[in-house]
Structures are given as structure tokens and as C-alpha cells.
Write a structure and sequence with these properties.
It is a single chain. The chain is an alpha/beta fold. The protein has one domain: P-loop containing nucleotide triphosphate hydrolases (Rossmann fold). The protein contains five helices and seven strands; from the N terminus they run ββαββαβαβαβα. The longest helix has 15 residues. The structure holds guanosine-5'-triphosphate (GTP) and magnesium ion.
Length: 200
């Protein structure tokens, strides 16, 4: 049975390319953060059941602006451009940092920040850095392990434990949640946790 959540229209609102270009905050925002190519845009489309709403690409670093989407009842989705794309020129990396810092330090109404890490690999140093930063900033945060379809069923709990350990999550904190935009695994759970964060 389909989850009852996410009625109504979702639509692209705007793309922000400059640190001073953010809109005046409206309602609660749900942030998608993580490495380039980890599957942020794909997850966002799966949650909204809209295939091509956010652009998905095989080329890492494709999303280079901060994209805002209006959803029916899941708040405003904010798709951050991915970090850690080593081949990006220094200038682009610099711009990326200025843009993302301006969002994260901009006192936005963040209901929850979804930190996406690839289930197939250990979280990277940059994942750890961002996770630490979000926790110190007091932003509500949940780690999602993407592309769970590519990890064998028998291994997934081990992957979850390992990711929690590398990211330094305390035993009382919520465990990383395996998700797959491809098979739909975990998508209803993510929708529910967003709904809860946005409406509490
Ligand atoms: N196996 C698998 N592949 C996925 C999944 N989600 C995304 N991908 C693939 O991963 C690649 C990157 O997906 P995107 O959604 O564009 O990733 P992104 O994090 O938005 O990338 P940037 O915008 O470049 O930072 C694409 O080739 C997707 O098809 C998934 O759940 N399973
Ligand atoms: Mg993207």
C-alpha cells in the first residue's frame, strides 16, 4: 500500500547560485546534503514520486546550485550541491563552499538535515566533517545510507554499524537508515521522518 503522505503538487521553486541569493525563509526546510553523486537528487525525486523533478546525472558535480522545491506536506526541500568532487577546479570548489556555508550558517528554518552517505563505502573524511559540523551547530540531522540495493541483504546491518562508528554517532543517537531510490527501500520511512520533523 502506498504511504498516504505527500499529497498535492511539488514544484521547483528556484536555484540559488550566489551566497547572497537565498530567499527569505518561509516554512520549514528539509536539507539534502552529501557527496557528489551519492544520490541526493534521486532520493528527492523518489520521496516526491516525481521522476525528473531534480536532475539526476551520471556525471558527479552536476547540481551546482542550491535548488529549492516546494512539496505538498513535506516542507521545502533544499538540494545542496555535492561536495568532494576531486576533479572540480579550485575555483568551483571555492564557490561551492561559499554557497553551502552561506546556507548552513544563514539561520534557516531547518526541520531536518538528511546527510547522505554511500552504503557501498565507508563514510569519507568530508562526511565526518559535515556530520560533526551539523551536530555542533545543533541542526537536527539524520544519516541515510544510499544505494542500499547495491549492498547484499546479509551485509546491510554491518554497513549501518560501521557507518555509525566512522561518523562517531553515540549509541543513543538514531542509526543510519539504508535507503534506495531504485528499489524504494526505506523511502516510506524517510517520508515519515520528514513529515514528523516538519509538523512537530
Ligand atoms: N544503484 C543505485 N544507484 C543510484 C541510486 N540513486 C542514485 N543512483 C545513481 O547515482 C548517480 C548519481 O545520482 P544523483 O541523484 O544525480 O546524485 P547527486 O547526489 O544528486 O549528485 P550531484 O548532484 O552531482 O551531487 C546516478 O547515476 C544515479 O542513477 C540508488 O538508489 N541505487
Ligand atoms: Mg544532484
Amino acid at each position: 500500500m502506498k504511504s498516504p503522505l505527500q499529497h498535492g503538487e511539488s514544484r521547483f521553486l528556484l536555484g540559488v547560485a550566489q551566497p547572497d541569493g537565498y530567499p527569505v525563509p518561509g516554512g520549514p526546510e528539509v536539507v539534502f546534503a552529501g557527496r557528489s553523486n551519492v544520490g541526493k537528487s534521486s532520493l528527492l525525486n523518489a520521496l516526491l514520486r516525481r521522476r525528473g523533478l531534480a536532475r539526476v546525472s551520471k556525471t558527479p558535480g552536476r547540481t551546482q546550485q542550491v535548488n529549492f522545491f516546494q512539496t505538498g506536506d513535506l516542507g521545502t526541500f533544499v538540494d545542496l550541491p555535492g561536495y568532494g568532487f576531486a576533479r572540480a577546479p579550485e575555483r568551483v570548489r571555492h564557490q561551492w563552499k561559499a554557497l553551502v556555508d552561506a546556507y548552513l550558517e544563514g539561520d534557516r528554518p531547518v526541520a531536518v538535515c538528511l546527510l547522505l552517505a554511500d552504503a557501498r563505502h565507508d563514510p569519507t573524511g568530508q562526511d565526518v566533517q559535515l556530520c560533526d559540523w551539523l551536530r555542533h551547530a545543533g541542526l537536527p540531522c539524520r544519516v541515510l545510507l544510499t544505494k542500499a540495493d547495491a549492498v547484499g541483504r546479509g551485509r546491510i546491518q554491518k554497513v549501518v554499524r560501521r557507518a555509525a562508528e566512522v561518523l562517531g554517532l553515540e549509541s543513543g543517537e538514531e542509526r543510519p537508515l539504508p535507503v534506495s531510490a531504485r528499489t524504494g527501500e526505506g523511502i516510506d520511512q524517510v517520508r515519515s521522518l520528514i513529515h514528523h520533523a516538519v509538523h512537530s
